[in-house]
Design a protein that fits this description.
By secondary structure, the chain is mainly beta. It is 6% helix and 39% strand. The strands form three sheets. Strands 2-1-5-6 form a four-stranded antiparallel sheet. The protein has a two-stranded antiparallel sheet with strand order 3-4. Strands 7-8 form a two-stranded antiparallel sheet. A hairpin with a 2-residue loop joins strand 1 and strand 2. The mean pLDDT is 86.
């Protein structure tokens, strides 16, 4: 004979090993909704600090299982150090600084403009 008893499943969410229920009490952007058979983690208005490994742990009186998935936050490039226009005498050396941040890390490419006899840049 089969029993019709429903086993209660409890869920816990972790971020980089830290219990998210502790964070969700003071961080209103994080919301956890769970039923007896499912759990959903909502992160509203993602910020760079949300980057990390998120783990869902499902437990019953008979054991537990867990699954971890990374959250990668893509961040558009932002200048940290702007390149500036410079002029130098021929044969002199000048360092032109340029630095940007973002995720993935931006690739910086340099282009050289040359002026023609009419003074226009090409």
């Amino acid at each position: 004979m089969l029993s019709s008893t429903t086993v209660q499943t409890t869920f816990k969410w972790l971020k980089d090993g830290i219990d998210l229920s502790l964070l969700s009490q003071k961080e209103t952007r994080i919301q956890i909704l769970s039923t007896n058979s499912a759990s959903v983690l909502f992160i509203h208005a993602i910020v760079p600090e949300d980057f990390g490994n998120y783990t869902c742990v499902a437990s019953t009186p008979y054991g537990y299982d867990k699954l971890t998935a990374p959250l990668i936050v893509n961040i558009p490039p932002k200048w940290i150090l702007d390149p500036k226009d410079v002029s130098i005498k021929q044969s002199n050396v000048k360092v032109i600084d340029c630095m940007a941040s973002g995720n993935p890390m931006p690739t910086i490419s340099w282009l050289v403009s040359q002026s023609s006899k009419d003074g226009n840049l090409h």
